[in-house]
Amino acid sequence: MLNVQQVSSGRRRRLDYILLFAAASLVALGALCIMSAVNSVSFSNPVVRTHFLALPIGTVAFLMGWSFNYQIYDEQWKALYGFILILLVGVLLFGSYQRGSRSWFVLPFFSMQPSEICRVCTILVAAAFLDRRGARIREVPTLFWLSLLLLPIFGLIMMQPDFSSVVITLPALFILLYCTGANAFYLGLAVLFAAVAGFFTISWTYIYLHPDLLDYPLIKVFYGLAHNGWYMAGFAVLIALLGYGAWWLFKQFRIFLPSFYFVLATLVVLAGLAGAMVVEHQMKPHQRKRVETFLAPKSDPQGAGYNVLQAQIAMGAGGIVGKGLFSGTQSRLGFVPERHTDFILAVVGEELGLWGTLGVLGLYLLVLWRILSIAYMSGDRYGYLVCSGIFGMFFTYMLVNFGMLIGIVPVAGIPLPFISYGGSNLVASLWALGVVQSIYARRLRA
Amino acid sequence: MAVTRIFFNPRLKIMMTIAAVTGGLIALRLVDIQVLRHNAYLQMAERNRTQIIYQTAPRGRVFTADGVAIASNVPAFGLYYLGGNKDPQYLEQLARDFATRLHLPEEKLLEKLRAGAASGKATLLAENLSTKSTVALQELQFYYPGMYLIEETKRSYPYGSLASHLLGYLSSMDERQWRKRDVKLGYRLTSKIGKNGIEKKFEQDLKGKDGGVYLEVDYRGRVKSIIEDKKWAAGSDVYLTLDFAVQQAAEEGLKKSKTGRGAAVALDPRTGAVLAMASAPAYDPNIFVPYSEEDFGDATQKINEYNLAIQGVYPPASTFKIITGAAALESGTLDVNRKVYCSGKYDSGPRVFKCWGTHGPMDFFDGMSHSCDVYFYAVASQIGAAAIERVQRMFMFGRQTGIDLPGEKAGNLYGPTRRARNKTYWFIGDTLNLSIGQGELLVTPIKLAQFAAAIASRGNVYKPYYVEKIVSNQTGKTKQVGERVVLQHADLKPETYDTLFKALKHTVDTGTAARVRLRGLDVYGKTGTAQNPHGADHGWFMAFAAYPGEEPSIALAVFVEFGEGGSSAAGPIAREMLEAYFNNPAHAPKAKSQADYDELLGGETHA
């Protein structure tokens, strides 16, 4: 990691060229792949046209983000918060429906998706709030007030609904909190909650989809938890006893931890279980199908698993060097769905091969490394927090988008910033990088 | 706000480590997908984008000896669904819009479309579409993505039922046949194979190598480009020994005959080659090349595969008198000029046998020409049944002719030796019955034709053959198939043959076989009327003919079931066959000039 002392001497650089280079490479590669994916080198193609319109706007956004002092966002965080709410309420009132969600403002020349800008703004607002809490970051009330502050934003987003926005923003905030120094125990509890809820949901769905497993008595009892109140009550008591037992065990070994921790952990496990129960009873067949697709993508190659399978076929067919730009059959002939947006990596993989995908991955890691380095170099705590949040955002994007393609994350309609088609996303992402560059430009001297 | 240093570097380090490790794991999985599983995925990608549509190669043609194609091919079209679009509504729309054009019920078409969509492979919806009906389809395929029309060929038998029993027909394979022929032999589940006759016997030669069009399709099954167009290779042509005119004369004659049931076989007595082989009723093999499965259902019921020429066994009746006569001549005890008086009946002792007429005094030639039973009763009782059986064996009665066709019947040899083996008695009545070809004696029409050829060739009992050669359309190589095979030589004395020839010519010139008398030709013949206790008598006619001074070049046997008179029913057919044969200048003796030929036929063929 770059040391602060190293930059002290000489003319001060205003721009992190490595970050700029990495991002510019990704954008250039993305533009090529979009042109290939929509099977056209012609600039009259609506997708290509829109993308090349978004590029200068994104550049302007980047320049604005870079040139503005980032501390403005800290000072004017309430205005920013209001701006987010106005945008989100506005899109609910005046937005247009696309693919079943009301997430778009349709303007004379293009449409824009406000939740993309709001995502970055939310990080800026959360960072400003946490900056103000200062050392009280480790306290529970801080988490509580932060949750309360962000609740309206998430509520409005879910009303659109824009599930993918939540999927990205929550982990980003989580990473922000972690980097800020929030109490690891509380963060751990959140992870525990998610893990418990996820484990039970996935297991139950798996059993639901494979009824022959119910022949095993233990599995039958386990599945019974979801539908039998008595089983559930017994299980809850068992968890409580386990929590108590753990506390007692620790005491025997003279490791004194507040009993409060054990109570909390037990409660979180039970809450996770309850959450899983709610999901289990609320889940609709097509959602179950999506979980199943994730569990076994090849089980139904013509149905829900088709998309992932076709994307993987495209990547695998590309091999090491790829089939060459504009010559991938999987993408050109339309076998890969959403190939210019969420599955753009399949196009990269098919046409540019392993070098292409590893290149994108490497450039992403470069971007992430630079953002974290700038966080370290930041002149103030706000800059540090903003960088952590933006790092979290891009890291989540990378994890989910790559993960979706290689089959470790369920399909969730998440684009890959800089590469995927999507003007709002590109503009917001470039603006976020501009803000990071602004933090770099105003970094701590010496 | 005071500028304060942030001291949470360990967490930044941890985050960066997590990001790096995540990136590393993703990279490993990418290597797994793109390097280790590259081949499998590449194959899947290729399978995704290519659809193969096979084009059935034109089957080899079947020619008669005089170069008429009696089985050939005509262009036809097949309509395929490429199976990309699985949208049920689209499939229903396709079924609705195409059903009438394809002459298929809508549900049936929808079923095929659904199966095709489920398999994701090109699926044949309708084949053998005529050029006429495809004009509209040709355009429609562009409005309905996924539909693809392709040129194929369709088997055609231009002369309908002509030689249908020899040709056989084509039909789809059943499961057992499919198991025997696999993809390696170039067969597909939808391939048609020969089910009978030549189509079956020479399946491997006739079947060419199917072509195929490799199409690049998109995810909706729309054709984007043709990757490869593999041209088919036509099958080899089969040349028969059949003479088109004689065959046609035989078939028409049988069709026009009194009952329309019968058989006619003509052989070349110099080689044993089949010049004509007809069996009535016949079937039209074209009906097995149907438009749709519905038509096909009917076709299987209408077909009459029974080949009377090789499978029908009947008493040879008076034609057998040639054997009796030959046995008598051979015995050396017969004076051909000694007359026997026919009073219309013959007293054998236990029983009185009747003649079919009252002929008065008969010598050998008149006895033969008038087919007088009494004369042959007298001769037979003089020489004994064993002598007649011996000559029967010389001409291989009761044995198959060995023609290369399935299901040939052997008939039945009749005589005292045979009877003795069965440990029963032989009576004088049996001898008399045998002498005029009645009783347990049974022959097939082809057997009798073989016999006629044997007499005509002075003793050569041939194994008849009907395929001359197979000529490959690819290499031009000729494979000789049929050849002259003499199964046995009937060693009768030359004088015996001379006398028989004289008697049979006498029969044509003055007697019962007068119907085949032709100007300028030496025609020999014998009629026969087989008594049928169950109904009308069967008519037989056997003959052979030659240009004067030449070897006989055609020998034939005609049989009309329930035709009553041999002369009246079978005679005209035999005559037409002989005329058809000798009207062909190619059959004129080589040494003779055209002028001689014209003179020979009295200028009938040339104006």
What does this 3D model show about the protein?
The complex is a heterodimer of chains A (446) and B (607). Helices cover 70% and strands 2% of the residues of chain A. Chain A has 446 residues and is mostly helical. Chain A has one domain (11-182, 284-441). The radius of gyration of chain A is 24 Å and the shape is globular. The longest helix of chain B has 28 residues, at 9-36. Chain B has 607 residues and is of the alpha+beta class. In chain B, the strands form seven sheets. In chain B, strands 2, 3, 4, 5, 10, 18 and 19 form a seven-stranded mixed sheet that branches. A five-stranded antiparallel sheet of chain B has the order 12-11-23-22-21, sandwiched between helices. In chain B, strand 8 and strand 9 (223-230) form a beta hairpin. Chain B starts with 8 loop residues before the first helix and ends in a 7-residue tail after the last helix. Chain B contains 22 helices and 23 strands. The chains are: A mainly alpha (446), B alpha+beta (607). Chains A and B meet through helix 7, helix 13, helix 15 and helix 16 of A and helix 1 and helix 2 of B.
